[in-house]
Specification:
Length: about 90
Amino acid sequence: MEVTVLSRDVEKALRNLKKKLQLDGLFAELKKRRHYEKPSVKKKNKQLEAEKRRRKALRRSRTAGSARPSGTYRSPAGAAPGSVREVPRS
């Protein structure tokens, strides 16, 4: 990994380095390795992280495809124009 220092701006170079290390996941890895983790605990944490990622992806996919707020439903073409009714969330 390389960070260039331009016009003696060391502070900016340090910020760039920290950002690169953060995006690379180095700080998270160091935090994980501070203490020994039993294999059973490691497996459990890995499953919890995967579940969090799945939920986050599901939230993103739900909000990305919807132009209307959830819970509203436009009536069919034969109904009064602009009529909206609430639908219970499931």
